[in-house]
Amino acid sequence: xxxSNKNKTKHVSYKKWGYLFLIxxxxxxxxxxxxxxxxxxxxxxxENYMSGLKEIGPTFVGFDNYIKLFTEGDLLKYFENTIIxxxxxxxxxxxxxxxxxxxxxxxxxxxxxxxxxxxxxxxxNLIMASSFAMLxxxxxxxxxxxxxxxxxxxxxxxxxxxxxxxxGARGLIALMxxxxxxxxxxxxxxxxxxxxxxxxxxxxxxxxxxPSQVFSKITMPLLKPILAYVIITSLIGGLQMFDLPxxxxxxxxxxxxxxxxxxxxxxxxLYSKNYGMAGALSVILFLVTGTLSIWVFKAIxxxxxx
Amino acid sequence: MKKKVLSIMLAASVMATMLxxxxxxxxxxxxxxxxxxxxxxxxxxxxxxxxxNIYCWNDEFKSRxxxxxxxxxxxxxxxxxxxxxxxxxNAYQNNLDAALQAQESAASDDKVDIFLVEADYxxxxxxxxxxxxxxxxxxxxxxxxxxxxxxxxDIVTVDGVQKGTTWQATPGLFAYRRSIAKEVLGTDDPAxxxxxxSDWAKFDEVASKMKxxxxxxxxxxxxxxxxxxxNVSTPWVEANKIVVDDNIMNWVKQTKTYTDKGYNxxxxxxxxxxxxxQGPDGKVFGFFYSTWGINFTLLGNSLADAEGEKAVxxxxxxxxxxxxxxxxxxxxxxxxxxxKGTDNISFIKDMMYRLTCDAxxxxxxTLDTQDYTNNEAAMNEIxxxxxxxxxLGGQNHIALFAEAAKxxxxxxxxxxxxxxNEALQQTMHEYxxxxxxxQTALENFYQSAIEKYPELTK
Lengths: 306, 458
Known about the structure:
Chain A: This is Sugar ABC transporter permease. Chain A: It is a multi-pass membrane protein. The complex is a heterodimer. Chain A has helices at about 5-45, 65-70, 75-105, 115-125, 130-140, 145-150, 165-195, 200-205, 210-240, 245-250, 260-270, 275-305, and strands at about 45-50, 55-60. By secondary structure, chain A is mainly alpha-helical. Chain B folds into two domains: about 50-170 and about 330-385, 3-Layer(aba) Sandwich (D-Maltodextrin-Binding Protein, domain 2), CATH 3.40.190; about 170-330 and about 390-450, D-Maltodextrin-Binding Protein, domain 2. Helix content of chain B is about 50%, strand content about 10%. Chain B has helices spanning about 1-45, 60-70, 70-75, 90-100, 120-125, 150-155, 180-185, 190-195, 200-210, 225-230, 245-260, 270-275, 290-300, 345-355, 360-370, 375-385, 395-405, 415-430, 440-450; strands spanning about 50-55, 80-85, 115-120, 155-160, 160, 170-175, 220, 235-240, 240, 265, 285-290, 320-325, 335-340.
């Protein structure tokens, strides 16, 4: 065997291994994600649920489930709830995360104990969402510690029923989402910022740019790909918001169904084993998520190419 | 070349072990399990299964069983396994449904042998094939069942076949605090108090007196619900259409008034605040409770020290008394059903007989626990005796129950009672709290009712 021959075979086999190692992913994805997704599309055209212990259907009903969802249910209301809850949590989250990330990566600022703070702000994310929601439920219950503190401090006279007011319940869910995710977002944005060439910052400094100018003219534009990633993942997560409101409101989405998210609505259908309707709702959710993601992606990354 | 072959083989073996790790183990254990149970089935088709699985939603039945029928375990050589899933949001029923539907393919030790049902949804199961005939299949005789209250048999009887049996009858009464009655009404004598509460107008009058004296008439929104919902003129569902009866709306009206005027403490059923209202620090005059509620729930909540002795001096033990209240009603009740496909029929027969037919045991249960058991002769005997309950300040409440039990009318129950009662209470809470108007609350009720039961219409 000659040396050149050896080199050639090595080169080819690496490529093969690449594909080989990808097989498990595609296999698992196909079995656990792709096939279920296709079957969801399929079942959404059937009437199929349990009446007592009797199974009704499956009977093919065409687009009936979709028509029912739009005419009889309050689908748009739940969509609106979901988006409001997401925006309420995401806006403060991205603002705080950007500020924190900028501070942590700023070489001139040289924050002390930044490692410690980075760990601490990530901590809430380590708590399970369900226990986090239970904790808030207990803290903010009508006779809970928060009400006691507020009453003892003389700020309010009667206990404030957080879970019975739309602003209270939505505010709590947004606050929890913010607390759980701002650490994660900070870390992601920091990674993005540290990837920016420091020479650019130094050059700006030499040219006499102020910190705010550096941030808006250098950091932000170069951060766009990461920002797009953060917004899209957060949007998808937001549309699929379930555990926090479900547990905080005990599955009722109260008050007056103003914290009922799309997935909670889906869960209600699954609870009564209404597979057809749940399938139709999932398909709508899939389309909405897909469209929104593409739109956000285009809007954020498109400008750079122009 | 050798290296290449070696590395491919290595990669392949890594892959193989990975994939084997994913799915292989599961499959192999499953087949093993099946093989062994099949063998067991074959060898023990005439013998009893070793494990009796009992599906229920709280530990009330468990404590009855352990106190009065645990010795049957040894006699039949079985172990009893309780599968407890809470009732709320149909969780118990959904879990039970899934288990029953998997009954045929389940391993014999995993099969449901006994399941418990409540009046609110009993008919769902008795109409199905999953509940066995207690006479034809289980082997109890008509004579065994003769002393049970007729209504307890009617509720689980489909086409003349009785498919469940219960150890308790559940007439409802109004339990009130003697100390508060004395202070506000001037008497704590059950007969005198009953006179002041004999209809809803008088009940409202007393409520306003309680408010003036700094007490609450009722604890929360749902307290009087059963007294209204049991006196409806139509069942919840007629020909798949949801019917909200006028009497249900009377409950809504009353509760809204009570909430606005401060006659209740704005709690919800089963909430910690609601339970606390029944305890030593409670400022609530009374609670609508049926039999199990008095000896099981109210007694437990009235104690200052839950672990302490159940006697006068512990919390407000002895401060409660009962009277009929404004309207006769019943609440709850637990029926024992044998599941189709069980391999423990003889155990089930013995247990059902012991807990629901045997007059001696049932009398003992009543004397021990103050529960009202399902044996007319035994109950009448206690009712006319000088029996008295320490918890109720020496009152013979069994006499009141015996009267109330005769009035129970189960003609308006439907398969949907639990889900719809729960949905209505939940959606109406928001109306009571003033977040939505009555119409919106009703709309929300229909919405969640149809989510729970897709076949229903408004």
